[in-house]
Amino acid sequence: KIEPFYKGGKVQVSLLLCYIFCTCGSRVNVLEISTGKIVHSVEHDDQEDITSFALSCDDELLVTASRALLLKQWDWRQAECTRSWRAIHTVPVASMTFDSTSTLLATGGCDGTIKLWDVVKQYCTHNLKGSSGVVHLVQFHPDISRLQLFSSSLDCGIRMWDLRSSQCVCVLQSHYSTVTSLSFSSDGGTMVSSGRDKICTVWNLKGRKAERTVPVYEAVESVVVLPQNKTFFEIGVTSKDLHFITAGSKGVLRVWEASTARCVYTQTLTAVSEEEEEEKDDDPRSLMYLLHMPASSRLATVTAEHNILLYQLPGLTTQQQFVGYNDEVLDVKFVGKDDSHIVVATNSCQLKVFELLTNSCQILYGHTDTVLSLDVFKKGFLFASCAKDRSVRVWQMDSDSGQVHCVAQGSSHTNAVGTISCSRLKVSFVVSGSQDCTVKVWDLPADLSTTEADIHQLTPRATEKAHDKDVNSVAVSPNDKLLASGSQDRTAKLWSLAGEGNVGLLGVFRGHRRGVWAVCFSPVDQVLATSSADGTTKLWSLQDFSCLKTFEGHDASVLKVVFVSRGTQLLTSGSDGLVKLWTIKTNECVKTLDAHQDKVWGLHGSRKDDKMVTGSADSNIAVWLDVTDVELAEEQAKQEDQILKQQELSNLLHEKKYLKALGLAISLDQPHTVLTVIKGNLPCNKKNACKSLLRYCVVWNTNARNCQDAQAVLQVLLTHVPPEELLQYQGARAHLEGLIPYTERHMQRIGRLLQASMFLNYMWQKMRVAGAPSR
After folding, report:
1. Strand partners, 605
2. CA distances from residue 123 to 146, 326, 447, 725 in whole angstroms, order as listed
3. Which of 110, 137, 371, 422 has the smallest set of CB atoms within 10 Å of its CB?
4. pLDDT at position 676, please?
């Protein structure tokens, strides 16, 4: 299950261990970086939201503050609260931090005061007053011998506190907007501050003055000073001067040289359009936090959409990405080799590709508005998406690295594109349906290989006004010759894709009382399934467009329907949060999964029919095992295979291709059919068939009518296969022993028949017809 673990607020990375601590409502979740799993979680008993937390520098202590004005100290590995006390603040705590010795804790309150706590001796050591408004930033100087604390509040100044005297010794004034972060040089003599006024200031702490103001041309949320004892040539650091990295509203990491105020490196992101390049207040790429992980020489960034990305220094190469909060999940599909990944469309312009083994995520940029629907081509390495931005895109996953990039795009609809379907036999086209009431067929180029800068531009081969209202769903048949569409106008329609150019209407399926949400072709039968807002799922005949079956069981709209178990069962998902499994033959609901707490928009079965993925408006994604009846599917597959082979055998016999027919009959384990082939006067000389033929001879030899054929085959076997080789076959001795008594019986019968025939011949020779002239 992939569920939200971070919904905004503070994020902290452990210094010694590989964990990320995130706030999520009334909980602090602990994410293990190596596995992408939530391994620990602490939660306040009163269910009050956590306003801030701090992890000690030795990674041992976790302290949380809630709206109930309580501070709690945790043994986070056991999720056990070891101590709880009143915060003394009159309003909630806004910021917290530990000193480098892990013994002093500073809390900044919304009441303008700062409290210092000795967590070992368990008492309040300082009460610092003088800040104006919310103290949103508190930070100790890394050199604890200086006993200095820095803070910032609404007045945009940075206060330096001397903890020996409990006095504010100076206020560093430079920023004209909120100060967002502080970072110190390795010698502790220089500090860099960042602000939303689009500047960073380099401070000389000894002289308590600003040495340089660096205009960075974006609202900066975090700054990190690079260690001066390491080399960072890959990111433009060519001198020993102080350099720092900024993260802010533009969503890119940039490296600055403090002495010259020059940007020496800018991170490159996926190519975006000119409209996207303009800075937006709600840009999902905006960076909210930049965290340094010195033990592993990595950086972590947190985006406005609650995504956490890990970069490896010195090259700033992306290592891992985690999605803290998915928002409403609109569609989800299996992709990759053996369905190793899932691609997810959320209430966002980004696509997210999760690796199921590690929960690590790739974030795909390209669409400029919410992505509404997804579909996957047969092999699983190509998939298509459509969005409110009126466009469709085709994406390709590298089979080795798993990296995904866009290879084609098309824009021709005049309204949001709500549904998309891929060709089934081969990668040749996609079909889209839109709120402009049309369906479009887009042909794909034969060679989709491309670069990020050079994406294939698609143009529609055919456009058809399909319905009177929004087109909610389209589906391509397994043979790529038919198209089905479902609409808000309460109808589903069947179209021909066989002709060049226009799409031809074949018929209309009428019967639903409300809009049709989904359509799906059976993989084996001439049947279409539809699901509707009237709470029903229907099966329709493609021959006469009549309704064959109706499935009722959901209490609300049925949003998705898919065939599983080789077409013998249906999976449906609804607005009631339920997923139901139906057996088509009996019209029964055989399984109900209370899968989610809200609408289940995403539903997809794996290509092997062994697992299922669901995505819901409750922001959760779930992968399920053993949902479908796999044994039933395997039996159905065997029956279909038998039918196909029987038809092929019939054709071979009709064409008198006895050699091929014999091999196929033997593989089907049909002694009677093999006998028919033998009677076609075929000399059997295939050694690989000897074992089966010997066994069949035993069966045929038990019947007097077939014994001559059995003996003829046995003669061929004994003539062409040495006795030593025959005896090596499994069960050969038993077969030969089974032949002896019946063969002896047949010989006795033939001997009696021979004696009788000789006697008859003798009698015939001696007979004289009465009255016949003598010779």
Report:
1. 612
2. 21, 41, 70, 92
3. 110
4. 72
- Strand segments, DSSP code E, in 412-503 are 417-422, 429-434, 438-443, 456-457, 460-465, 471-476, 482-487, 491-496
What is the H or E stretch that residue 678 is in? helix 671-678
The confidence score (pLDDT) of residue 636 equals 59
CA 714 to chain centre: 59
Cα pseudo-dihedral 225, 228, 230, 231, rounded to 10: 90
List of residues 6+ apart from 149 with CB closer than 8 A = 106, 114, 116, 128, 138, 139, 140, 141, 160, 161, 163
Q: Which one, of 406, 365, 372, 412, lies nearest residue 388 by Cα?
A: 372
Contact 502, 491 (CB under 8 A): no
Task: State yes or no: pLDDT of 627 exceeds 90.
Answer: no
Q: Where are the beta strands (DSSP E) in 317-379?
A: 317-323, 329-335, 341-346, 351-355, 361-364, 371-376
The torsion angles phi and psi of 253, rounded to 5 degrees, stand at -90, 135
Q: Which residue has the tokens 């021979």?
A: 754
Query: Per the structure block, which two tokens stand in for 253?
Result: 């990491």
Structure tokens at 426: 């081969």
d(CA 640, CA 633): 10
* pTM strictly above 0.70: yes
Give the whole-angstrom CA distance, residue 701 versus residue 603: 57
One-letter amino acid at 126 equals H
32 CB-contact burial (10 Å; exposed 0-12 / middle 13-18 / buried 19+) = middle
pLDDT reported for residue 732: 77
Parallel, antiparallel or unpaired: strands 404-411 and 456-457: parallel
Residue 485 in contact with residue 518, Cβ under 8 Å?
no
Hey, what amino acid is at 457?
Answer: Q
**Which is it for strands 93-98 and 429-434: parallel, antiparallel or unpaired?**
unpaired
Quick one: which of 367, 373, 358 has its CA closest to 389? 367
Identity of the residue numbered 172: L
Report the range of poorest mean pLDDT among 375-389, 532-546, 554-568, 681-695. Answer: 681-695
Closest Cα partner for 560 from 522, 585, 590, 533? 533
Residue 773, pLDDT score: 63
Phi, psi (5° rounding) for residue 225? -80, 130
Where is average pLDDT lowest: 52-61, 79-88, 602-611? 602-611
Tokens of 352: 């997210």
- Determine the average pLDDT of the residues in 214-231: 90
Asked whether the beta carbons of 605 and 612 are under 8 A apart, the reply is: yes
Map tokens 């902290």 to a residue: 12
- For residues 325 and 23, give the distance between their C-alpha atoms in angstroms, rounded to a whole number: 11
DSSP state, residue 451: B
Amino acid at 740: I
List, in order of start, the domains of the chain with CATH numbers: 11-239 (2.130.10.10), 329-625 (2.130.10.10), 631-761 (no CATH)
Per-residue pLDDT at 633: 54
Mean pLDDT (the chain) is 86
Question: What are the phi and psi torsion angles at 186 (to 5°)?
Answer: -65, -30
How far is residue 312's CA from residue 322's CA, in Å, rounded to a whole number? 15
DSSP structure string for 606-672 = -TTSSEEEEEETTS-EEEEES-S-HHHHHHHHHHHHHHHHHHHHHHHHHTT-HHHHHHHHHHTT-HH
Average the pLDDT over 589-607 and give the result: 88
Respond yes or no on whether the N-terminal peptide bond of residue 683 is cis (omega within 30° of 0).
Answer: no
Please tell me the distance from the alpha carbon of residue 298 to that of residue 316, in angstroms, as a whole number: 8
Is the Cβ–Cβ distance between 408 and 456 less than 8 Å?
yes
Closest to 442 measured CA to CA, from 426, 471, 465, 462:
462
User: Cβ distance 137 to 175 under 8 Å?
Assistant: no
Q: Are 736 and 723 in contact (CB under 8 A)?
A: no
What are the distances in angstroms from CA 163 to CA 53, 106, 633?
22, 11, 73
